[in-house]
């Protein structure tokens, strides 16, 4: 019922947007955003919202960081755009590559740029296909990921994504296999300890590799903490157990750090938080604090050497995007990394995480919250009809969407994911803003739970 020619009416008439199948959202129309301030966004009607999702996990420095905007402006003035093809690339592209290798867990490595996390995952898979063929193993093409894992929306990265919604596209492509979601609370069996659950998942991985043939598998890709799958931290010892299996079969482990990387878990890499050494890292989002679209594949020593040998042999890696390694993106990323690591943003996550956990634990005392899970500044509260039996609410009630919509009414953006509500605020959040988030969330939960009781 928006006024004709309003921003909302024009959005409905002219614009399509992603992931908007929810009737509740369709009925409410678009929130058209004009500007931001710290962790807040403002719509065309001047209404202010605390965005507890940092945009899409990425606006970790908030919506008005002057230093990031100035870094972009300075680079636009200096050299506004270039590519990384045919033996040419900008100085900023070189500088960022050196910085990324230096802040990576790798003693040495090499970096390839994309415009997004999806493209970074596609690029990684094409690199594995390319180097396996160059090494005389063209059959080593299969990619292993997990159910509920999210890796993007392009044809390959959507095939890696373990969500049933991709069936509408006829995906996944052949050769993309999805293992059990490592969610102990939901997937653990009666009487099974967390360690036993981990052992079962490692045995499943071993079995799949044996069944498919280790020589047909190109790699295993995993998020340290599943993000869009509903914030699922791994069970105890998970990555150690998985890595032992993969090493025995000579299969690379790739850490998709698009969400976890650069501070979300309280450390620079989720792999560091969970103490494993990947063979490559996929980065995006926080890489530029959301101030420029950019993704990166960071190869560790073994894959760098094999990639370089394959390129030397074939004399070309016929892949790259017009804006791969864009100088403005690289200048912004260099500034974002500096802000996150050296201006205390990551420290704030580490210091704020216990406060975040304590506040959410109090809210999670409500009998309709089945599980609170998370780490650092990424958390989810899962709603249930019955906590003891973990019985979900009836799907038709759309409980998590109602919670998110009620929050929106009260000026808090949070994300419904399955039966959970996700909170992943910008790292700049003050204590008072965190309290505002708790207060609004608590009120919305109480209101919705009383409506659906
Ligand atoms: N990988 C992970 C872990 C993600 O969370 C996302 C996006 O949310 C992607 C990849 C895809 O990134 P993009 O949306 O930039 O294509």
UniProtKB/TrEMBL annotation:
SUPFAM superfamilies: PLP-dependent transferases (SSF53383)
Keywords from the named record: Aminotransferase, Pyridoxal phosphate, Transferase
Keyword Glycoprotein in annotation: no
Family: Belongs to the class-III pyridoxal-phosphate-dependent aminotransferase family.
Classification lineage: Bacteria, Pseudomonadati, Pseudomonadota, Alphaproteobacteria, Rhodobacterales
CDD domains referenced in this protein's UniProt entry, alphabetically: OAT_like (cd00610)
Protein name, entry field: Aminotransferase class III-fold pyridoxal phosphate-dependent enzyme
Domain of life assignment: Bacteria
InterPro entries (UniProt xref): Aminotrans_3, Aminotrans_3_PPA_site, PyrdxlP-dep_Trfase, PyrdxlP-dep_Trfase_major, PyrdxlP-dep_Trfase_small
GO terms classed as biological process: biotin biosynthetic process; gamma-aminobutyric acid metabolic process
GO MF: adenosylmethionine-8-amino-7-oxononanoate transaminase activity; pyridoxal phosphate binding
Any Pfam family matching the protein: Aminotran_3
Keyword Zinc-finger found: no
Source organism per UniProt: Rhodophyticola porphyridii
NCBIfam families, per the entry: PRK06105.1
Cofactor: pyridoxal 5'-phosphate
PANTHER family referenced in this protein's UniProt entry, alphabetically: ADENOSYLMETHIONINE-8-AMINO-7-OXONONANOATE AMINOTRANSFERASE
